[in-house]
Amino acid sequence: MKGFYEVDSVEETWAVAAELAKELRPGDVVCLEGDLGAGKTTFTQGLAAALGVPGRVTSPTFCIVQEHDARERREGRPSLLVHMDLYRLGGEEDVEDIGWEDYLSRGAVIVVEWPQRAGSLVPASAWHVGFHMQKGEENRKITIDSGRLIRV
Question: For residue 124, what are the domain limits?
Fold first, then answer.
């Protein structure tokens, strides 16, 4: 899944997130990039719902990391979604200290806001999701790219 998506509502944002969720495998990293209020947490809520995570998903701004278990375990599908907001961290060492490698070894999908703080810890295969506010309060352009693509 790669492309540009224009959305005008929370429901449309969730639909794009659900399409990406179909592609996710244990150990994947999803980097969310965009201004405050651009839709990063809304997108994560859509991913969580599509992966079968019950309950409410909120921004981890103050707690930095939130773990969300999926209801059911399915072969080859992620059963743990970890949502990180790295804004208040200083760099790679701080990111390692909050369990980055442990989460990946457990097969979690890590959804990370402010991924630049993770530096070289972000794998080349990471998904990159950009949020660009457009006209109006709800209108956004979402761009999705993955390092999985073969680059010549």
Answer: 3-146
